[in-house]
Amino acid sequence: MTANQVSSPLSRFRREPAGNGASVAAGDHVGEVIESETTKFTAQARELNGAPSFGCLVQVDGEPVTLGLVFNASTQSMEANRRPVAYGKTVEELRREQPQIFELLRTEFTALVVGYIQGGIAAHMIPPQPAPIHGFVQRCSDAAIRQFTAGDDFVRTILGAAGVPTDELLIATLKQAIAAHSGAGDYLVRIGKELSRLLSDDYDRLHSLIRRLSQ
Amino acid sequence: MTGRTGHLAGGTQRGVRLGVITRGSLVEGLEMKLDAAQNIEDMKAGKFVVIEGDKNDFFSMVTDMRLDSTNQEVLLHPPEQGDELLRQVLSGTSTYNIVSLRPMLMMPRLLGDSLEGPRPVKAIPSHFSTVEEAVEADVARIFGREGDDEGRFFSIGSPLDMETPVCVDMVRFAERSNGIFGKTGTGKSFLTRLVLCGLIHYDRAVNLIFDMHNEYGFKAMKETAGANATFVKGLKQLFGNRVAIFSLDPESTRARGVQPDHEVYIGYDQVSVEDVAPLQEELKLNPTAIESAYLVYAIYKERWLRTLLSLEGPDVEEFAREIGAHPGSLVALHRKLKRLEAFPFMVAKVDDGDVVDRIMECLNRGINVVLEFGQQTSMLCYLLVANIIARRIHEMYVKKSERFYATQRPEDQPRQLMICIEEAHKFLNAGAAKQTIFGTIAREMRKYYVSLLIVDQRPSSIEDEVLSQIGTRITALLNDEKDIQAVLTGVSGTEGLRSVLASLDSKQQALVIGHAVPMPVVIKTREYGPGFYREMGSSTDLPGDERREKVAAATAALFGE
């Protein structure tokens, strides 16, 4: 370990794997669960401003592996009483002149629980237990994204979720899924048909979703 | 249950899945939701499809299609021109297509149960039964295959979008009177020629054809667009000695390069009052004129017409007074019948025997007779000659049949005769059907072994009673609502067929309904060309080698090796 890493408050995220058979290589993870509920979990990003993108499919290791869609990210002071103040300088100037202030900030992100993987099979259901606290969060591989988005059940899960920007999340997730599926055209039409079925009484919403998806 | 869907009873794979049944009734037909992957434009009216129920296959015809949507909003704000994705997404979900099907036949789908053939539909398939395109095996199961059952089935075309032959049961076809209908230029003559070929080829009936436009005997022009008109073979060319050409106008027949087998002359003495009566409309006779004719007949018997026509103008009135007829009426009759003298085939005395006897002789020997009218194409001539000949043939057939009923010897059984008449509504309209012999034949001659092949473009003018007796109808395009109604007289479940009939192509398509086919079917008519000639046994169109072999074989058979 370098001196720099030891001195950093975030260095605890950077240790080597414990060697107890955990499948997540610690270097790959993007965050650690700090708050877990049945339908969502919040994780602290490993790096400042290092939250996965909005709509990104992430997984928390455990049995089963919890799958979540990132729908919110925030950066604030580590201490609730101390709020950042405006300095009137660029980020580069601040890094040079006041490097310590970045060490006092943290980024958190929240993911909607959309399913789990058990025995290698993706289930579009709420897992029996919430994601383990302090579990490592990592981005799903393309293969996992393909597996999760192969069917169209996840569309319904997202549409039914409360307290999330549903349409935006759907679009972000679908763009990710389209990128993972080659032959995006057919895939998009198939998912579009499912959307059309689910939103049968809301043509305007469907129209807007489809228009933004095809942009 | 596994492995049943999508398979024929024999285990072979069926055609493309088209959709599922969503609603319907036995009376009104069924509705299928078309799969989103299928294009509505492929679902043509008249297409032949199979609904796979749990226990039965339902053979059905597409009769109508409809565009539908789940949401009015979609219709108010349709996708923009370039928005292909939205269009694709909506298709099959918010906007969908409904295809109306009319089940025509059902067949049990249990394996190995081949005893039960197609039956009339008495049940409907359950919800979400799959609908598939029919395949060759389906068509063969229903319509039979050419070559099965010793020449019973004759292919007259193929279903829409398929290459499989649809066969007509020629035995059943010959049993009853039949009709070939269609607007002018839709291929009635070709259909007629095709059917006649079938009858002659399989020897199911001997034909007497009143060929008003010289289309059947020898060479006929194929109706093609533009100047490159081509000619097709006539019956004489295809069947040689089995067809005899009789001509009313030998000059014209010879001019077309054919030597007629017989020239037809009709003596005045062969014309009876019954033959003149149906000409009332053409000659503009009034009813008293016919009564006057009967008066002349009462005195002079069969010489009535000759006697009447031998008189000159002023003598007629005196003649009328002599026999006690109304002078004005007889003068009118005389004046109008004078037109008959202008026909070259009308002669005072026939030298070489009675032409009807000659025709009858041919028919008895199984030789088909084509009576060509040459340039004598006036309706008057056609009506007169057809009436005279058909009436006499009818009398002879009645006698023959009665002899057979008396003796019950198989050798006395008359050959089934089919009389082919064009412009049939002239003989069979409500007024004439009572008077002409054709009305009688259409109504009751089946038991005397005579039936009609009615070729007509205006079926609505034909009397209802005659129409209802027609066994098999082969119908090309008809537009007039009355004509469509008339063609479907006496056919059950016609609602769907009506739209099918009105949407046929104007060429080479026909709807076949009735006695000789198990279910109504729309066909693309069989190609009448070299391939067909060969199948009918004509050797002139064989490739060189094959023809030489055939000739050698025939020579060997004749003279020994």
Model description:
The complex is a heterodimer of chains A (215) and B (561). Helix content of chain A is 34%, strand content 23%. Mean pLDDT of chain A is 83; it is low at 1-26. Chain A has eight helices and seven strands; from the N terminus they run αββββααβββααααα. Chain A has a six-stranded antiparallel β-barrel with strand order 1-2-5-4-3-7. Chain A folds into two domains: 1-140, no CATH class; 142-215, no CATH class. Chain A is globular. With 215 residues, chain A is of the alpha+beta class. With 561 residues, chain B is an alpha/beta fold. Chain B has three domains: 17-143; 168-265 and 351-535, P-loop containing nucleotide triphosphate hydrolases (Rossmann fold), CATH 3.40.50; 268-346. Chain B is 35% helix and 22% strand. Chain B is built from 22 helices and 23 strands. Chain B is globular. Mean pLDDT of chain B is 82; it is low at 1-7. The chains are: A alpha+beta (215), B alpha/beta (561). The interface between A and B is medium-sized, with 17 and 16 residues.
Looking at how many chains there are and whether they match, the oligomeric state comes to: heterodimer
| Largest sheet: spatial strand order of chain A | 1-2-5-4-3-7
Number of strands of chain A: 7
Into how many domains do the coordinates of chain B divide?
3
Amino-to-carboxy terminus distance of chain B = 63 Å
Q: Count the beta strands of chain B.
A: 23
User: Spatial order of the strands in the main sheet of chain B?
Assistant: 9-8-23-22-21-10-20-19-11-18-14-15
Low-confidence stretches of chain B: 1-7
Put simply, the count of helices of chain A is 8
Strand content of chain A: 15-25%
Gyration radius of chain B (Cα, Å) is: 28 Å
- Count structural domains of chain A: 2
CATH architecture descriptor text of the largest domain in chain B: 3-Layer(aba) Sandwich
Radius of gyration of chain A: 19 Å
What distance separates the N and C termini of chain A? Answer: 46 Å
Quick one: CATH class of the largest domain in chain B?
Alpha Beta
For CATH, the homologous superfamily of the largest domain in chain B is named as P-loop containing nucleotide triphosphate hydrolases
How does the overall form of chain B come out from the CA principal axes?
globular
